[in-house]
Amino acid sequence: MGNLYGYIRVSTREQNEDRQIFALKELSIPEKNLFIDKQSGKDFERPQYRKMVRKLKKDDLLYIKSIDRLGRNYSEILEQWRILTKEKGIDIVVLDIPLLDTRRGKDLMGTFLSDIVLQVLSFVAENERTNIRQRQAEGIAAAKARGVRFGRPPAPLPENFHHLYQQWKNGKITGTDAAKMCGMPLSTFRYRAEIYEKAKLL
Fold first, then answer.
1. What kind and span of H or E run contains 120?
2. 28 tagged catalytic
3. Which residues lie closer than 8 Å to 33 by C-beta, 6 or more apart?
4. pLDDT at 33
5. pLDDT for the residue 100
6. 35: part of which helix (H) or strand (E)?
7. pLDDT band at 53, cuts 50/70/90?
8. Helix 161-169 to helix 186-201 angle, to the nearest 10 degrees?
9. Do residues 128 and 96 touch, judged by C-beta distance below 8 A?
10. Residue predicted with more confidence, 114 or 56
11. Residue 102: exposed, middle, or buried by beta-carbon count in 10 A (0-12, 13-18, 19+)?
């Protein structure tokens, strides 16, 4: 029997990892063998995960709370699982899913069942990530449609803008001159002039 390890991941610095730590500490995993990353699970370029993988040796046992703590990218989860179990020769236990315990069913049927469960759950993890992205995009689009502005509010128009806009519209000065006198780039002047014109028509 090798050493016990635990891997914990939370998506942001604001999220709390206590629930995962509590679950893994109950298994008598040494503190020095608990690795925690506070970043997205979209890929495996995580410093603590990489550090842990370098330490893992054949017959070590790795515990994770749930499959989405390992990652959220379907193909990459499967690839990492293969590296850990086949190349590194370690066992993995996913606490939330008893079927995902590579110590059990080392025969062909057990391995087959474990592989099927892993593939289904990896797909579900990635699908949920895709759905979250889609819901965020839909929420942003709906907010924009309601007139919600994102980003910094535009700077107030200079006091001479109306006068210079009128002169520019009447062909008395060029856009370049108007922009220069307003203290803004030509592209910004044209953009603000377009918004100004629309506001006047409302």
1. helix 108-145
2. no
3. 3, 4, 5, 6, 55
4. 93
5. 80
6. strand 34-38
7. very high
8. 90
9. no
10. 56
11. buried
